[in-house]
Known about the structure:
This protein has about 110 residues and is mainly α. The chain has a domain at about 15-65 and about 75-95. It has four helices and two strands, in the order αααββα. Strands 1-2 form a two-stranded antiparallel sheet. The protein is elongated and about 75 Å long. The protein starts with 8 loop residues before the first helix and ends in a 14-residue tail after the last helix. The relative contact order is 0.17.
Amino acid sequence: xxxxxxxxxxxxxxxxxxxxxxxxxIVIVFIFLISRANTFSWVNFMIISTLTITLGLIGSFLIWxxxxxxxxxxxxxxxxxTFLSLLVIxxxxxxxxxxxxxxxxPDANE
Length: 110
C-alpha cells in the first residue's frame, strides 16, 4: 500500500476556488451593483474584488479547518465555508472603502 502524501497548498487553493466559484461570482456581481450605485471606479472595483476573493479564500480555509458538522460543506452549488466568510468580509470591505450598502442610486430630490 502506498503512503499518502500531504496535499500541496496550491492544490488546496485551486480546489477552494473551484468549489467556491459560484459564491465568488455572486459576490463580484454584488460588489459591482453596490459600486455602480455609489461613485463607480474600475480601480476601486478591482481592488475590492481582489481583496474580497483573497480574504474570502483565507476565511474559507479557516472555517473549513474547523468544520465538524455532520452535513456536507456543499449546499447545492454553494460552498458553505466560502459563502459564510464572504457574507462577513464583503460588507466590511465595502464600508471600509466608503460605500453605502445600496443597490440603486438615490433620487436627486432626496
